[in-house]
Specification:
Elements: H1 2-26, E1 57-61, E2 64-68, H2 71-79, H3 81-90
Antiparallel strand pairs: 1-2
Domain YHS: 59-86
GO molecular function: oxidoreductase activity
Organism: Roseibacillus ishigakijimensis
């Protein structure tokens, strides 16, 4: 009897953990409905075509969606966002 109860509790905890993990992974890079969409099909930092270096990386910064060709471009953007936001405003 105790073994059956223990197995049920373990299974329930596993399901809850898997559900929480799935839920947490959904919110990471999802855009909110209020984000201004990115207007170009090129990377904001390098001007490379999005998708040319694998899956593009999207980020919402100050209510605006920004897209990059790769993760290193995100670091370059974060080091000097004002420079790239001016470029974005000119698009």
């Amino acid at each position: 009897m105790k073994t059956r109860t223990l197995k049920r509790k373990t299974a329930l905890r596993s399901l809850c953990g898997a559900g929480l993990l799935a839920l947490a992974s959904c919110g990471g890079s999802a855009l909110t409905g209020s984000a201004e969409p990115y207007p170009a099909d090129t990377c904001l930092v390098t001007d490379n075509k999005l998708g040319s270096m694998g899956d593009p990386v999207s980020k919402v910064y100050q209510g605006k969606e920004v897209k990059f060709c790769c993760q290193p471009c995100v670091a370059k953007f974060e080091a000097n966002p004002d420079k790239y936001l001016q470029k974005l405003a000119a698009m």
